Amino acid sequence: MIARYEQSVLSGKSQVTVQRYGGLQNLPHWHMESELIFLEKGYCDVMVENTVYTLSENGCVFIRSGAVHYIKAETDSVVYVMKIDSELISSTVGAQTPVCPLLEKRYPLSEDFEKIRQEISNGKKYYEVICAGLVTAMIGEIFRNEKTEALNISSESSAYKELLRLIGERYADITFDEAAEFMCFSKPYFSKYFRKMSGMTFSEYLNVVRVSEAVKMLSRGNISAGEAAVAAGFGTIRSFNRTFKRYTGFTPRELPHDFVFIGGSQENVGKGFDPTLPVTRTL
Fold it and tell me: Residue 41: which H helix or E strand, with range?
């Protein structure tokens, strides 16, 4: 089963992690950490709780713990993503969050992001303390300058999370009509809503989940491509082969044994869901 909750990437005493990506694209997901997204170069769209924000260079988005979001950046863009422990955020700014996730002001964050990334990479004595201090100062500066409000959890967002969980469980047989009914939406409204929330159509999203599950099945080595196609919910082997190659770059027969797709290979299943699509480059 593929989950839409991204398991924590923090470990030990560390309260922050930073990654730098080229052309970052990921699936809708949420996690317990808050997230600070900084665009160093190019353009990217960030969806947060049913609203899409477009970032230009030096633009920044703050995403509070539990919010559904995804990132879709241009191929040549450079994006920093910082995940911050929710307790560190709460101890710094309480239950407040920016009124708009897309920050109004521009903040020169490249140097701070890179310094934190290097501290984590080097792992020298007290690096956790230094990183926490840098993040606290950064968040304090942002919240001092932005309009803030108390957190408000949307019931619609909760229903959407449940729908993604349901798709992860019933990927082989769930239909568009059933998904729209689950959300209590008309079909036209659900189609627009799902595309806005996920960055893709319901059919495209379902195919990504199905291909991910098929990759896991094939990586075990005890099932044929035809059997994987049926088990994953594809109507014909032709549609399975075409869709499989579109998302992985390989036919089912060509798939490398150690190939990792959404959710990881069989060896990585227990480590949690990784929403990052294969087109993304880690810098």
Answer: strand 34-41
Residues 6 or more apart whose Cβ sits within 8 Å of residue 230: none
User: DSSP readout, 218-271?
Assistant: HHHTSS-HHHHHHHHT-S-HHHHHHHHHHHHSS-TTT--TT---TT--GGGGGG
Q: Are 78 and 40 in contact (CB under 8 A)?
A: yes
What is the spatial distance between Cα 58 and Cα 105, in angstroms, rounded to a whole number? 10
The CA distances from residue 64 to 83, 101, 102, in Å, are 10, 8, 12
DSSP string of 22-36, one letter each residue? ES-BB-SBB-SSEEE
For 151, residues 6+ apart whose C-beta sits below 8 A from its C-beta are 64, 95, 96, 97
What is the per-residue pLDDT for 123? 86
Beta-ladder partners of 81: 19, 37
Give tens-digit pLDDT for 257-274: 767 665 443 333 334 567
Using a cut of 0.90, tell me whether the model's pTM lies above it.
Answer: no
* Beta carbons within 8 Å of 173's beta carbon, 6+ residues apart: 233
The pLDDT assigned to 61 comes to 96
Q: Which residue has the tokens 């160093």?
A: 40
For β-strands 16-22 and 281-282, DSSP reports them as antiparallel
Tell me the pLDDT tens digit for each residue of 36-59: 999 999 999 999 988 899 999 999
| pLDDT value of position 269 | 34
Full set of structural domains in the chain with CATH = 16-150 (2.60.120.280), 155-270 (1.10.10.60)
